[in-house]
Amino acid sequence: MLSEIEEDTVTVHIKYKDVEQTFAGNVNEVWTGVNRFFNEMIPALDIVGKVLITVDLEKLIKDCNGIIAVAPEGPTILVTKKILTDSDTLTLHLLAAYIGYKLGLFHNDALAKEELQVSLGKGSKITSTRLGELCREGLAIKTEDGKYRVTTLGIRHLQKEILPKISARLQT
Length: 172
Fold this sequence. Notes:
Helices cover 55% and strands 16% of the residues. With 172 residues, the chain is an alpha+beta fold. It folds into two domains: 4-51; 57-171, Winged helix-like DNA-binding domain superfamily/Winged helix DNA-binding domain (Arc Repressor Mutant, subunit A, Orthogonal Bundle), CATH 1.10.10.10. The chain has a two-stranded antiparallel sheet.
């Protein structure tokens, strides 16, 4: 038999996006907590959602179809480099490394300058210059161990600006 206290306890669990909250207590306490949650948290989360850049991995992979690939050997660009700028080539390799990492195929999402230089097919000075430009633009960052990784802003830039242009060139 439940005690009178246990019978009067109400528990409500709310999950909205990445925020979860559980309210437990008497009906009035829970009702007040739930109302406060909806009045304070939801508008705040909606505002944050408007300025927070996130990556939809499934959409990103679809957007990259036919442009880049991820193989156990490493990231690969599937399109001819003739239609790509040096910066596009480097960023696409970093993007493929990111996707490979997110899919659990790679242990890291960053690439060494030497790997990027080989993929670009140009000298060390050109590779360093282009990587520096990408970092200044916020599209890539240099990690503590001297490697390079694409930023979330870089992924967004690729999805909004570069990938559609490449896809359009492929269809003509």
